[in-house]
């Protein structure tokens, strides 16, 4: 099981925020296809965000660990030319692991469908 590459810079997170969004009970998935300038990067890149509204540092880190584990488990389903940001909600902590994984699979499918629409490609 390998992990997808990580987004680390604020500018990368802000770029992905301009893409499509898919809302689920445990998180919001943001996705944006990389432009040709970033062709040197191969494979999907994933970033995780948990705001302070969700809880203290212990709670936020537990949620991030759960989301990272799910992302590494289903890394084959991420599109290789796309950057993703998972913005967690507090519900991600209490939701069963399998349900959270299924939500992520559904969100990836919905984001891929939205990214393939011509009007989205023009706007980005």
TrEMBL record:
E.C. number: 3.1.26.5
Q: Does the keyword Repressor apply?
A: no
Which of UniProt's keywords are assigned here?
Answer: Endonuclease, Hydrolase, Nuclease, RNA-binding, tRNA processing
Of the GO CC terms on this record, one is: ribonuclease P complex
Listed NCBIfam families: rnpA
Protein family: Belongs to the RnpA family.
Name of the featured protein: Ribonuclease P protein component
